[in-house]
Amino acid sequence: MPISFPVSIQTFNVNSGPKKVVFYPQVCFLHNHSLKQLINQAIVFETQQLIYTQVGNMPSTVAEMLGSYEIKNNQRDVLSLSLLNYTYHDRAAHGMTYIKSLTFDLEKGSSIQLKDLFKSGSDYIGRISTIIQEQIKERDIQLLEPFNQIRPDQDFYIADKTLVVYFQLYEITPYVYGLPMFPISVYDLQDIVKEDGPLGRMAQNG
To answer: Exposure check for the chain: N or C terminus, fewer CB within 10 A?
Structure first.
């Protein structure tokens, strides 16, 4: 396997007053300038979208907003990160948190959607949905309605040798369950994973 190094990350923020600050990452010192621009523009766009989702058409006043991020994977030319936004509106029963994850294949210089991780024609939706159904049963997770299958563009991130598929608040569970996360070992998907893609790379030893 060719040597690859983690990308360097700097933290920036948008500050609009007390209890209202959004931190977000930006990639720096990447030799591929166009790729660096693609990544950073995508991060800024999604950060802004999260803010808009929280305040867009809400009639009430924002009392608190905290945006943060987590780098989930930064190795083997795979960068996967999550952007989080927690906002509390005046007189609301509770705050709301939304998460948006972004994954990039630095080797190919592209942004990655869930379908891009798998071989063409493979039933990744069915396979992942079955594993999630098993985890829901094993973990005794209460659902708002029966779970059938994920969306083709379901939210996900990569963390080492694990694909984590997740849902937003209220998407499939009551608020008390938080953001339901379903970690899936890459080895449980290996037969349908693109060998030269991000998950295939993560599955390699060495």
So the answer is: C
